[in-house]
Sequence to fold (218 residues):
Amino acid sequence: MTTPTVRLFQALDRFHAARPWDHNAHYHRWIMRQLPRRFDRALDVRSGTGDLARLLAGRAATVRGLDADPAIVDRARELTPSASPVTFAVGDAPAAITEGPYDVITCVATLHHLPFSDTLTAFRQHLSPGGTLVVVGLARARSVGDHLLGMAALVMNVAMAWLKNRGRRAPRPASMTAPTRPATMTFADIADEARTVLPGVRLRRRLFWRYTLVWHNR
Fold:
């Protein structure tokens, strides 16, 4: 016998299966607002099908997208015009972060899959003086504030799913296909380690089970 709570989450799962939307792409505009109007070189880590990399190309001289999945890198190349300044490579952070330095580094919904401090250290080492690092990440809910924000996100998630799928006959294809796993670090743990590696970093909890991290290499 299922409880009302279980039935509620089952109903939500059915609702979102019929009305999917990309929580990560929701933050792309916010990411762009953190960046200069023009910059030279950018790196997007775990770039998926390249949606954010192509957005960065509107401001950058060159953009490198990096992803561990060869199939999705092939798909990103197919979706990217030949005249675009975006190139894609197969590899994963932190070991595959080469070339550079970069004026902008972005990383969306990926850092919880990687060695946290080592990856932030690699970002710092490959970021140009005056450059900007922007991360949208996932954290494990633990505090009362985390759970309250999660409840608010449930309500907003339903509203956004309805609005973004209104009038759409077929679901939009996902921009990332790599297997996912839940975050293990809490926001407090993330903040402590990030401030050790990146002095002056700015972090903030966000809706839709995300947090943001912004660091300027001054």
About this structure: The domain at 36-139+182-216 is CATH 3.40.50.150 (Rossmann fold). The beta strands are 39-45, 60-67, 86-90, 102-108, 127-137, 202-206, 210-216. The CA atoms of residues 139 and 189 lie 9 Å apart. The radius of gyration is 18 Å.
